[in-house]
Fold Putative protease YhbU.
Amino acid sequence: MKKPEILAPAGSLEKLKIAIDFGADAVYLGGGKLNLRAFSDNFNNEQIAEGVKYCHDRGRRVYVTMNVFPRNFDLKGVEDYIKGLNDLGIDAIIAADPAIVAAVKNAAPNLAIHLSTQANTVNWMAAKFWYDQGVKRIVLARELTFTEIKGFKENLPEDCELEAFVHGSMCMAYSGRCLISNYMLGRDANKGTCSNACRYKYSLVEETRPGEYFPVIEDDKGTYIMNSKDLCMIHHIPELMESGLHSFKIEGRMKSEFYVASAVKAFREAVDSYFENPEGYEFKEEWAHILNRVSHRKYHTGFFLGKSGEQTYDVSSYIRNYDIVGMVKSYDIETKTATVLQKNRVFEGDTVEVLRAYTPNFSVDIKELFDVEKNVKVDVANRAQMLFTIKVDTPLNENDMLIKGKIN
C-alpha cells in the first residue's frame, strides 16, 4: 500500500508555509488567472516562485488551480500564462474545462494535468476518457460512495491517480456547479465569485400575505433547504486508505491559518498511524477534538457511506468553539521569552493551548505580557497584528499557534 498524499489548501503564502510545516505533502493554490477563489489572497508570480521553492526544498509539491469554466474572452493569453507557471516550477495544473486541458498540453506538454472535481467525474469510463486526453489525476466528484470509488480503481490504468475531498465545506450543487449566486446577485460561482447564497435563511411567502413568513423545513420524505453540513472523514481513515485514492484533499483556501494547521495536523497523524500499523490502528479522539476546535458547520460523511439524507441543516452559521489568539514568531531559550503575533484578544493570566505539528496539544499560561511596539507591560493584547512577548518556561517553536476556548 502506498501512503496517500495529504493535499492542503493554500489561500496565501503564509498558509502555504503553515500547511507544509504541519505535514502536508502538497498544496493547491490560485494564481492570477482562472481559478475558483477570486476573493482569496491569490498568488502573484513572485509568491508562487517563493512557494514552489519552499515546497520543493522540503520534498513537497505545488498545484495551481485553473478550474473555472472560461468564456471566449477569458482565453486571451492563457497559454502564455501557463508557460509562465511552468517556468516557475509548479508540479501540476488543476483544470475543469477541456479548453484549459488543451491549452496546458499545447503550452507545457510535460506539465501534469489534474482534472478538477468541477468536471463531475462520476464513472470510470469518463475518468478513462480524460486519462486518454493526457490527464494524470482525476479529482473525483464529491457525490461518490466508497464502493463507487473502488470501481474506478479496478477499471483504470495503474498510473491514473485518483483524488477526493475528505474534509471541508460541501456544495448543494453537483460538485459545485451552481447558478444560484449568479441568478440572485450576478456573481458567478463557476468563475470564482460565489456569494454562498445556498447558506441564506429562506422562508416561504404567499403573495397575498406579504410579511407572513413560513419556515422551509425538512422531513423524512426529503429536504427543502440547500445548506449542507461540512464533510469530515477523520473517523474513516481505514476505509479511505483501502479505497485506492492517491490523494486526500482538504477544502478551504478561504479559511484561516488555524483551520489549515488543524486539518493538516489531524489527517497527517491519522494517516501516518494507519500506514505504520494497519492491523493495530486505533482512532484517537484527539484528532476529532482538533477538528472540532476550528470554525466549522456540523460535520457529516457526505456521500462516502451512501447516506445523504442528513447532510442539510437549518442553521447557516459556523460553530466556533476556539479562537487563535497568537502565532509564535520566535523564542529566546535564555530568557524564556516568546515573541507572538496577535490574532485575537488575549489577556494576562489566560491559559492557552499550543497547537504544534506532530505534537499533542499542551497548555501554557500568558505571563508578563509586553507590548513590543509601545515598549510597555500590558494586561491585554487587543491591537490587531500587534507583536507582544510572554514568559514561557516551555520552549515554543516558530509558527506554534496559541488557541483559546471561547466563553459563551
